[in-house]
Records
---
Amino acid sequence: MSRLGKMPSWQRSFVVISMLACSMSGSLYLLGHEFQVQRSALGNHHILAVHGVLAMIAILALGSVLPFHLKAGLKSKKKWFSGFGQLSFLVALLFTGALLYYGPVEIREGVVMTHWVLGVLFFIVFLFHSLLPLNIRLTDKQKGMP
Ligand code: HEM
Ligand code: HEM
C-alpha cells in the first residue's frame, strides 16, 4: 500500500543522513565550544567547518522534500505539528546561519545562542518525525504485516 508522504528509499536515506550529520556536527561543536566538553577536540575550527559544509548539504536535502513530500504530507493530514515545526526551525536555522556569516558583530552573541537553541529543538523534532515511522515499519515487518 502506498502511504502519502512516504519517500523513495534513496531520498529517505539522503534526508535522514544529511539532517542527522548536520545536527550531530552542530551538537559536537556546541558541546566543545559552549560547554567546554573536550574543548580542543570538539570545539575547534575543523568541526565548525564540517558543520558549515554539512549544513549546505542538509539544505539541499530540504530542497528535495519541498516539491512532493510537503504536499503529500499535507494531504495525509498526519504529522502536521512536527512537520511544520521542523520546517519552521529549518527556515530559522538558515536565517541565523546566514547571520552568523554576514550579520553585525554587535548581535553575534544573541544569534549564536538563538541558532543553537533552535538547532537542538530541530534535532529532537526531526528524530520524532522521521525515525519513528522507520521504527514502526520495522516492527510491522517483524510482525509480518505489509
Ligand atoms: C508540512 C510539513 C510536513 C508534513 C505534513 C509531513 C508529513 C509526513 C508524514 C505523514 C510522514 C509519514 C510517511 C509514512 O509513514 O510513510 C512523514 C515522514 C517523513 N518526513 Fe515529513 N512532513 C513534513 C515536513 C518534512 C520536512 C521539512 C522534512 C525534512 C527535513 C521531512 C522529513 C521526513 C522523513 C525523513 C520522513 C520519513 C520518510 C519515510 O519513512 O518514508 N518532513 N512526514
Ligand atoms: C540545516 C540547519 C542548519 C544550518 C543551515 C546551519 C548553519 C550554520 C552556519 C552557516 C554556521 C556558521 C559556521 C561558521 O561560522 O563557519 C553554524 C554554526 C553553528 N551551528 Fe548550525 N546550522 C544548522 C543546524 C544546526 C544544528 C541542528 C545545531 C545544533 C544542534 C547547530 C549548531 C551550531 C553551532 C553551535 C554553531 C557555532 C556557532 C558559533 O559559535 O559560531 N546548527 N551553523
---
Amino acid sequence: MNAPFLITPATILHAQPLATIHAMSFPPCERWDDAAIAAQFSLPGTFALITAEGGMILARVIADEAEILTFAVIPARRRRGLGRALLEAASDAARARGARILFLEVAAGNAAARALYTAAGFRETGRRRRYYADGDDALTMAREWEE
Ligand SMILES: CC(C)(COP(=O)(O)OP(=O)(O)OC[C@H]1O[C@@H](n2cnc3c(N)ncnc32)[C@H](O)[C@@H]1OP(=O)(O)O)[C@@H](O)C(=O)NCCC(=O)NCCS
C-alpha cells in the first residue's frame, strides 16, 4: 500500500524547486535547470506535479496524446512508493485533460524506471539505438486507456 503522499500541482512559479529535485536525482549531464523547466511551461499542454517528499513529474498533453517529459524522486526517498504515486497522479491528470495514451522514453539501462513503468502497465513500443550520450539505447513505452 502506498503512503499518503501529498502531491500537488506545480506551475512555472515552481521551476526552481522542480529543478532542485531534478538536480538531486540525475547525473550532472542530464540535469534540467530552472530555465529549462520554465521553458517547458511556455509550451501548451505542459503540467507538473511536485511533492514535499522530494519528487516531481513534468508532462504534456496535446489533443488525446500525453507524454512524460521528465520524472524524478531524490535518492534518499526512493523505494517508498513515491515514484509510483507520482506516475499514477500524472496519469490521472493526463486522462482528465483528455489523453487516451501516455508515452515516455527511458534508457534501456535504467532498470528502476523500467520496472516501475512495466508494473504500471506501460508496454515497449520502440527502441532508438545509441540514443543517449553514453551510448545507451532509448526505449519508447506507452500506456493506453479504454474509453
Ligand atoms: C525511477 C524513479 C522515479 C523511481 O522512484 P521510486 O520512488 O524509487 O519508485 P517506487 O518506490 O514507487 O517504486 C515502484 C516500483 O518500481 C520498481 N523499482 C523502483 N526502483 C527500483 C530499483 N532500484 N530496482 C528495481 N525495481 C525498482 C519496483 O517494482 C517498485 O516496486 P516495489 O518497491 O514494490 O518493488 C527513481 O528511481 C528516480 O528518480 N531515478 C532517477 C531518475 C530517473 O531515472 N527518472 C526516470 C527517467 S525515464
---
Amino acid sequence: MSDHEDRVAAVTFDHDDDSVVVIIGSGAGGGVLANELCQKGIDVVLLEAGARVEMTEFENDEVAMNDLWTWDEPREARGSRANMTQFPEQPAWMLKTVGGTSVHWAGTSVRFKDTEMKARTVYGDIEGTTLLDWPFGLDELEPYYDRAEAKLGVAGTGGRPWLPEGNNYKVMALGAKRVGYKEFHTGNHAINAEPYDERNACDQIGFCFQGCRSGAKWSTLYTDIPRAEATGRCEVRPNSMALRVEHDDSGKANGVLYADTNGNQHLQKARLVSVAGNAIETPRLLLNSTSSSFQDGLGNNSGQVGKNYLTHLDQGIYAIFDKPVNFHRGRVVSGTIRDESYHQPERGFAGGFYFLCVSLGLPGYAGWLDHSGWGRGYASDIEGYAYTAGCTLLAEDMPTESNRIYLHPTKKDRYGFPIPVCHQDYHPNDLAARNYALKKGAEVYEAAGARKVMEWRIFPAGHNMGTCRMAENARDGVTNRWGQSHEVPNLFVSDGSTFSSGGAGNPTLTIVALAIRQAEYIAEQMRQNNL
Ligand SMILES: Cc1cc2nc3c(=O)[nH]c(=O)nc-3n(C[C@H](O)[C@H](O)[C@H](O)COP(=O)(O)OP(=O)(O)OC[C@H]3O[C@@H](n4cnc5c(N)ncnc54)[C@H](O)[C@@H]3O)c2cc1C
Ligand code: SF4
C-alpha cells in the first residue's frame, strides 16, 4: 500500500489536533465545503449528528425512510404561520444522516435573480421588514453558479440535456399554455438525464425523497463526501452531535464539543470551525455557545443570530381530473413555470413565485390532503389519486426581526442544552403573495380541465434560510460576504443561514455555489496565515 492509500483507508485525526478544520453538518453546505477544502490540501473533521446510510440501504418506501432519517431532535414552534401552527414540534423538515437533506431533496436547482439579491434596494422600505441587499451582486456569484451546476450536473445547463416530460408536468404545461404563460419547462434539476460524473441516468421511478437508488440525483453522500475521503484528508464522524463551539482567550474558535453515539462527550480541537447544520440548528448551536465574552452566544454580540428566519411560502395545490394522470410516474418534481418569478409590484406584493410540479406516493398523498372534512369527501379525494395532478407554489417571504430562532427558556434536550424555538408570523406581503399565487395556480389547473382544485395541507418548511445572514455592516447580520463571523474571525457559516434575502427559488444551488466560493477564500486566508 502506498502512503496515500494507507492514509485514505485510515485517516483519523486526534482530538487534540488543532490543525484541522472542523465542519458541523455534512449536507449540501458542509459536505461540499469539506470536499473543496480537502481538494486544496486542507485536513477536515466532518461532524454529523446522523448515521451513515449508504445508497444500497435506501428503500423505495416513504414511511420506512421517513422514520429512518428525519430530523427528530426536539424543537418547538410559535407564531401564526401555518407550518408553525400545524407542526408545533417539527415546523421544519430536514434530515439527520450523512449527506443531510441533500439525500432527500428533489433536486430543483435555481439561480437567484439580481433583483432578489438587491431586495432592499429594489423592493424598497417595506414596513415591518428587515430587508437587506446581499453584500455582493449576482455578477460575483455567477462563476460559482457555473461550477455548482457542473458539480451537481444540473439538467438543461452547461450543455447537459433536459429531463423528459412526465405526466404531472404535461398537465401543468397544458394549463400554463392555455393561460398564456411562456416560461415553462421540465426544470433545471440536479438529476442526470444521461450518465454524468460517475452517476447513472434517472430511471423515473419517483422515490426521490426516499434517497435516489441510482445516484441520478446529486447528494453529497455519494459525491463530495467520498471524494473528500479519497484525498486522505477527511474524517467523517457520523452520530456526532455538536453541542458547543469553544473559543480561546483571544476570541478565536478553537474546538467543538460533541456527543458521540453513546452520549459520551469529546472536545475536538480546531484551527477553524464551520457550522453547516441547516438554518435552525446553526443559530441554535451558536446561541448555546455562551461564554463570558459572548454572553448571548458565540458571534452574537450584535444580537442578530437567529433573526430574519426565512422559509419561502410553500403552498401545495392539487387538482382532480376526469381522466387518469398517474402523477407518481416519474420524478417527484418534474417541471416548473417561471413567468411569475419576477418582481412585478403591480400584482400587489414584492418578489415573485415559481410553480413546481410535485407528486406524492399514496401514503404522502393521503397525509397531505385536507383532512378537515373527514368522511366521504376525504375518501373520494383519496379515490381520485390516479386522477390527480399537483404542484407547489414557492414564493419569497419577507425577513422580520421577530421571525427567528431562539432558545427555549426551560426545555432542554437529552444533552442538557436548550432546545430551539422557531417563531414565524405572516407579513402582509407574504399573505398577498400567497393568495395571488393560489389564484393563479387554480387558473392553470382549471384551464387544463380540472374538475376540482384544492390546497394541500401545508408542508413543514424545507427551505430554511437567513438566520446568520451576510451583511456588509455587522449591525445588520452575523456574517460578512464570505459567511465569516463578524466577531469571531475563524468561525464560518456554510449553509442557507447566510442568505441575506430568500428569493423565490429553491436554495440549494446557491448554498453549493457559496460553499465553493467560501472554500477558495478560506484556503487563501489559511495560506496567508490570516486564519
Ligand atoms: C422535502 C424537501 C425537498 C427539497 N427539495 C429541494 C429542491 O428541490 N431544491 C432545493 O434547492 N432544495 C430543496 N430542499 C432543501 C434542501 O434540502 C436544503 O436546502 C439543503 O439540503 C440545505 O443544505 P444544508 O447543508 O444547509 O443542510 P442539510 O442538508 O439539512 O444538512 C445539515 C446537516 O447537519 C447536521 N446537523 C445539524 N445540526 C448538527 C449538530 N449540532 N451536530 C452535527 N450535525 C448536525 C444534520 O444532521 C444534517 O445532516 C428540499 C428540502 C426538503 C425537506
Ligand atoms: S426518479 Fe430519478 S432522481 Fe428520482 S429517485 Fe428515481 S432515479 Fe432518482
---
Amino acid sequence: MKQKEDFDTYYRNIWQERWDALKSAFAGEPGYCTLEEGLLKPYFLDKASTYPAQALDVQKGDTVLDLCAAPGGKTLILALAKGEAGVLVANDKSADRRIRLKTVIKEHLPVSIAATVQVTGYDAATWGLYQKDMYDRVLLDAPCSSERHVLSSPYYLAQWTPARTKQLAIRQFAMLAAALDAAKAGGRIVYSTCSISPLENDGVVEKLFKKRKGLFDIVELEPELGEKTKYGIQILPDTAGAGPIYYCCLEKRHG
Ligand SMILES: C[S@@+](CC[C@H](N)C(=O)[O-])C[C@H]1O[C@@H](n2cnc3c(N)ncnc32)[C@H](O)[C@@H]1O
C-alpha cells in the first residue's frame, strides 16, 4: 500500500535509525496508569498523558480553560488540582465526544468539584476572539497526527498523506495563539500533542515565537520522564515505555 510506504519513508527521514524502535514500541501496549486519588472511581490513561496536565501547575481556586478536553483524562487532573473553588471550562468541538466528556466528569469527580466544571463546544481556534486575558491556566491538548493510532488502523493509514501534518500544524498554531490570548498576564499555558511530527510540536511553538514575539516566555521544565526538545519535553515509548506525548509550557508576559 502506497500510503504505508509514504508514511514509513516520511517518519524514517525524521527519526532516522530510531524509527524502527519507535514503530515496534507503537505496536506494544500503551503505558497505562490509573488515576484514583480523589476520584469516585478509577480512570485509566497513558502515564505520559498525565505530565502535560501536571505541568500546568493548577492551584486551588484557579480559573482554568481546557480547550480540547474530551474524553477528559486531563480534565480530571486539572479539576482535582483546582478543587471546589474557581472554575474549569472543559471545551470540545465534537458533540459526540462531549457526551463522553460529561459522563467522565459525572462518574469520576465528586459532586462538589464537578459543579465547578462547565462543558462547552466552541472552536478552540477562535476562543481568544471572545475571551481575552481571562484564565490563570490554559491547556491546549490539540488534535494531532496521532501516529500511534494511524499505524494501528488500516482506515486511518489509507487516508494519511505528508500534507496532513502540515495542515494540522496550521490549525494547532491558530489554537495555540487563541490559548495565549485567553490566558491572563502571568498565566500559564501548556501545549501538548501525541504526535511525533516536529512540525506539530516545537514547530508550532517556533511559529508562535515569530508571530507573537515578546508576548510569552518558555517555562523550563526538568523532565521526570522523557527527553528535552528545543522548547518542550517529549515522552517516547521506545525509551520511556509510555507516550508518545509532547508538551511545552509557556508563561504570558505582563504588559
Ligand atoms: C487529543 S484529543 C483531547 C484529549 C483530552 N485532552 C484528554 O486528555 O482526554 C483532541 C480533542 O480535540 C477536539 N477538537 C478537534 N478540533 C477542535 C477544535 N477546533 N476546537 C475544539 N476542540 C477540537 C477533538 O474532538 C478531540 O476530542
